[in-house]
Structure formats: structure tokens, C-alpha cells
Fold each of these.
Amino acid sequence: MTDRQSPFASSLFPFVASNLAPHRNPVTCILAGLDRPLAVCTQAERIEGDIVVIRPGIEHWVEINGRAKVLYFDGLEFPLTTVLAARVPREVAALAIDALASSSGAQEELRARFSRGQERCPAAVARTINAIAQDPMTRMNQGELAERLRLGRTQAMRAFKAAAGMTFRAFKRWTALCAATRQIAEGQLVRTAAMDAGFADTAHLTRTFRTAFGTTPTLATADRR
């Protein structure tokens, strides 16, 4: 059985930076330069554009020199064949602009267009994902995951990764990171957001931020306009 409506979130974050240091985004994302085109780079490749879609798990850095917005799609398989990144396809460019302008409807439609209707999640996994999202501080362990999915522990871990596109542990960490980022963007102190999302302290949150975003919590949410 699968849930008709995806349980996965889409997270939109604004920031200001001259560049993003080398990092690996945990999930598929689209990144837009608000003041000028940006460049997604590795030692062997450089992709320039106003709006770029980036494959998860590939170390890269980004040259921005101004304001930018990034929209992350949990649970979405990278929709293109490029190794690192590509300009957003022309046929969805207008939709991407609306999605980056905070339109939840456009975000959902863009996710559907990118997934080509293939995004499905078993109901038990969907309920588990919703439980984690509703309580970022949850201490759900592998044993509880297995009970929720009614599978052996190893089978449960494999089933979760197959549906979410990342391990159970990585997904919990990513969900907590997004929850903390949203709080900071709304004006919450970094240390408070870190505690509320289940991080050990501000330093723990900052390290996790740098690994996923290539910047700091403060810069990641600097532009609130």
C-alpha cells in the first residue's frame, strides 16, 4: 500500500553569501541567484545559470556573490541525467520561479513534474516520516522503526532508505536541521533553535550546517525579505 499524498517536505531557505564552501547537499535541490547568475563547481565541472538543479551527495561549491534562495525536496530522486547539476529545464522554469517565491502549490507541482509520478511511499514509512517531522527532537531508534514497519530491523532500515532516499539516521538529522533552520529564519536564536531541534549545542548545529549547506546558520537565513 502507498500513500497518495507524499509525506516528504519541501524546504525553502534564503541566504546571503559570496560563496558556499565545499559541501554535499543531502537531497535534490534547486538554487537560484537573486542578484546575478550563480555557478555550481567542482574541480572538473562548472555549471552557471540563474536557477540550477543540483544532484545530492556530490561534493561541490557555489559562487553566488549576493542573495540566493535554495529549495530542497526530501525524498525526490534527482530528475536529470547530469552528474552534478544543470540549469532548470526551460519547460519548468516559470514553475520553479513561483516555487522559489514561496508558492506551496508551485512547489508541489514542481515536485510532481520532477518525479514524473514515480514518487511513492509505503503507508507505514509515510506515517513514520510524519512522526519524525512533527517532533524533531524524537529519539526514535531502529527498534521502534522496525516495530512501526512490522519488519525485522535490517529489513526496516532497507525499506526506509528505499522510500526516503537516505538512511534512517541521515533522514532524522536532515529533518532536525531543517526544523532548526526554519526557526532561525523566523528570528529564533541559533542556540535555542539548536536545542529545540535536538542538537547537543550550537557548535553541533553549526557543524551539521556546514556539512549540508556549505555556510553557517546565520548566513543561511540572513535575507528575510
Amino acid sequence: MSDFDYGNARLRARKGSLLDRPAYAELSSLNAEGMLAHLSTTAYRPEVELATTRQTGAAALRDAIRSHLARQLEQLRSFYSGRARVLVDVLLSRWDLHNLLTLLRGRATDAPWEQTIAGVVAVGAFDAAAAEEVARQPDLDRAVDLLATWRLPNPASARALVRAHRHYLRTEELPELEHALVADHFARATETLRGVGPEARPVRGEIEREVDRRNALMVVRLVHAREATSEDDEARAAPALLLPGGAIGPERVRAALGASGPGEAAAQVADAMPEQSLADALERWEPEAGVHSLQDELERRSVAASIALFARGNPLGAAIPVAFAAAQAAQATNLRLLAEPPGGGEVARRLIVPEEEQ
């Protein structure tokens, strides 16, 4: 019996509770209160009941969506032990990074703590109490001090944060701070997976896909900015901005930066992408549609590739937790899309559902 057998059986049983396309079609015609009523008849019932005791309307809906995602992912983690648990912890560590960046942005921009907390998903190191305490700090420096003292989200990340913050104090460039933390996260995740062996392949593929997507967007954005401003100082620094662990290397970046425009740069990067669906999105992208359209399409295809592991991956390995985590995150995104204006049919085409439902 492998470390994945029990957990995968539990996740396969839960897969049936994921919302399908008919459910999304019904939800698309409802307002926030209607969506809450509908979701109260699904696996979201505990979160809806709790959220509606504290808030109403759209605020309660957002709370229920976020809380349900956190519960599902933490329960996923609890199903595994041994080497499987190591892989699941690496898989879910993306939420530690997400929460860390959300909290730091909130303090750097002096956002109300309630607004910052609304972006936190209580998975991993940041439970609700810890996240709120960080969000309530008077400024970024105090938030960093608290995170370092508490060694959150983990000791290695806390040390990386302290180093990045020292640089930030000289430059006051928040994107540079964030990049340092993202690069540290992917470098450590890649190193951990390197020591696990072949069974880590689905999780490694998930991380590599995200790194490739981020690096491709970085290159295209820089070329797009250069075309708009006729300045290439940032573009020359692009190789230093590459995140570790992906298929796009410095030579490919330099070639793409020599392209005549963002469309040609996207095609250059596409040649290095091992994930065909992402390469296709880059090749077909029309710069007139804007970089955000490319970002949305790359993310949609990346998530769809992860969810497809339900059907295409090894049913006795890490493919199932990868697919389930991606499906839960996509479901949360789908519901947020339907809940926000313009909502309804206009966003229905952007929904991501399990492969069998497409």
C-alpha cells in the first residue's frame, strides 16, 4: 500500500462534490444572496451558514468561498503522511507565498486590515489569528519584524524576507521585494522535490508550469513596456528576473528581448515551453488584446492542465492531490467571477471545470 492510497481514495470520493457546468449555469443568473442560498445546498453549506452569521450579501459570499477553499485544502493535507505528505506540503506551500505577499502588499500600501484579510486563504502557516495580527501592524517594517519573530511562514522564508526587506529599505521598490520572495519560494520547492524522486513528478510539473508561465509573462511585459516607452533599461535586466526551475533560460530571454515586438517575443518564448497548451496560447496571442488577456489565458490553460490529471495522471500517485487542489482553487475563482460584475454569461466562457465536464 503506497502513501497515496488512502488520501487519493478520499479525494476521488470528494471529486463528485465539485460544481459542474450546469451548476455554474444556474449560479450565473443569481445575485449574491441567491448564490448563497444555492451553495447552502452543496458542500459549501458549513461555510455559508457561518459566513451569514457575520456578514450579508457579497461579503458573506466571498467569506464562504474563501473559507471553503481553506477547509478543503487543509483536509487534503491531513489525508497524507510520509513521503506523500512531503509532496503535498510542497504543493500547498503556494498558499503560504500567496498569503505572505498579500499581507506585505497590504501593509506597504496602507490598506485597511479588513481589506487585506479578505485576500488571505487560511491554509498552512497563516491561520486567521496570525494573518490578522500581521495585517494590523502599523506599517510594513513592523509587519516584517513580526513575521521574522514568528518565523512565518517558515524559518527559511522568514530569513529570505529579512534579506529582501533590507534591500527594500534602500530602494522602496515593492516589486523587487516580492520578486525576491517568489524566487526564494520556487528555488526551495524545486530543491525539496529534487530529493524525493520520480514520484514527485506531478508536483514538479505543477511548479515548473507556474514558473514557465510567470517567466513568459515577464518577458512579454518587458517587451511590451519597451515598445510603449522606447526604454529598454528594465529589459536588459530581464535575465536576472528569471524565476528558477523552469524551461525558459537566459539565452531564450535574450533572444526574445531582441524581438521586434511583444507578439514576436511571445512566439520566441513559446518555442521553449514544454507544455503545449501554454505554447499554443503564446503563439496565438494578439498583442492588441493586451497582456492581461495573455495572462488570463495562460492561467486558465495551466489550471486546466492540472485538473486534467484526474483523468490522465497516475491514480496511485501525486497526480490526484495536484488535480484536486487545482480544481478547488479553480472553483473558488469561478464563483468569484460569477459573483462580481459583470458576472453571468459574460464570464461563463472563462470558467474552468474538470475535464469530463468540458
Amino acid sequence: MFYRYFPFWKIFFEGLGWSVKTSEGVRQKEKIVYFEDSCLPMKLLVTHAVQLREKVDYLFVPRLVSIHRSFIMCPKFRGAPDIVRLATERKVSVIDETIDLRKGGVSFFQSFLKIGKKLGASKQESKNAFREAEDSFSRSRKGWMDRINRLPTGQLFEVNIPTPSEGRNFPLRVAFIGHPYNLFDVDISKGLLSLAKGLGMEIVTSDILSEKEIDREVSNLSKEIYWSSGREIVGSLFHFLSGGVDGVVFLTSFKCGIDALLQEFIKRRLKVLGGPSLPLLILSLDEHTSREGLMTRLEAFRDVIEERRSDSQIVV
């Protein structure tokens, strides 16, 4: 969730007078810390935590139960703080306040008041920091698509770097759908979005869709999707496959149980509907994914899109 809420978190902690430090990612010679049967993002969480344990006073690893009023997150989010404690051998304090939006927006606010109290802030100081963080987050979301297409992926979450006022024109418009870490963590995606932009693809993500638009796409499904991330992914895929873009890329994590189920569900549903109405590329990412392999797949995908556009322009 760093790749969605960092602008909020950073301003909140800085508003309380704390310096915010992020990990440097997995450098070329640094090994990923493995946990038995862990998914890739959990492996990276542990690796980043180990990297930071000697450099900070606290690690912020909230116990995320729900970021939606009706649906829940993958259970691994709930256990993440405990995994981090084990991995860091309890050498650093972990801020693990529970966030569960099923109890209403007030509970979200109360969670951050508790965090502020733990860090020695007064209730009023925490309130002020929370309001500043909300404003920062709101501003960052408004220009998010411009930021994605005008900045290198590595600078997207550098809050102090402004979005360029102008950008390049892209001949193709492609939706990239998946968990935020699959889209924006360069250790996972190998810079996939930069590769796509280099091939003339304007990036569109599910961030431009409202909750109502996603709910509309999943409302007629035979079975409810209880995972908030799963609902967002399925709803976004069906929305963009119906038009508005030239193609859709679905990014999945190897060893992610939710992604495996969603992928099978989507394939079967598309088969019933007679196949996707637009070119669809499914990429499964893991720690062995190579940048060269992704480039080859994207180049072939671009060729399919261009061939389809060319065929549609032929008048018989």
C-alpha cells in the first residue's frame, strides 16, 4: 500500500516532526530475504524491513484489515507486522496500528490519532498532521495520470518533485491493471511502465475509475468478490476491455493465491463472452522476471494492437 498511500503517510509523520526514510529497494547484489511459501511482495517487504532496521527508530507496518467499508484485504496484510518483527529480530520498534475501514471513516482517523500518541504528539498535533496529509493525498490523486506518464517510475512517489506541465504525445492508450506493487515497484515490474512509454503507450490505470464504475462492472457476477483488491482488478479489467483504450495489460504476481483465482475466473468469463473485445496481455511477475523478456512481450503486444487498428481502418 506504499504505492497508494505514501503521500498521505509521509506528510502525516513529517507533520509530527519526524523524518521519513524509505528503503532503497533491492540492489543488484542484495539478495531477497525468503520466507517459506511467501508471495513476492511479502518477500520484498521483509527485505526492505531488514535493510532499514539499523537506520530508523520505527518501522511503519500498519495491520491492514480493510481499506473499504464492505470488503477485506488479503490475510497476509494482517500478519505483515508480525512477520517483520520476526525478520528484524525485534531490533526495531514496529508501528502496527490496525486500519479497518469497515468500522467507518472515523476509525481511520482514530487509528492515526493513536499513532500520533505513540510518537509523543498531542491530540491537536495529530489532528493537524492528519488534515495536512489528507490534503496532500487528495492533490496527488488528482494529477496521478499525468504524473505516471510524465515522470520516471522511480520518481512517482518523490512527493517534493512536481509533475511536469507538459509531456510527450503517445500514439497508443493502454490500461495496465494489477496490484499497485506490480505496477510501480521496479524490483517487481523491472520498469515495465517505462518500457511501455518508450514503445509509445500512454499509461492508464484503475485509479481513474470511481467506486461506482467498478461496482457496476462486478454487480452482475454470479459470486461476490470479497477481496477489495480483487474487486478493483476485475471491475477495472472488464471496464477497459469494453473500450476507451487500445489494449489492456493484466499484471499478476506468481504465488499470489488471489491473483491465481482471479486470472482463472477472468479467462473463463471472457470465454463465455466470446473472448476479449480488445487485445489482452497477461503477465505473471516474480523475482526471476527479466526486463528483456518483458520488452519482448510488450513489443509483440504493441504489434498486435497496431495490426488491429490498421485492420479496423480498412474500408470494404
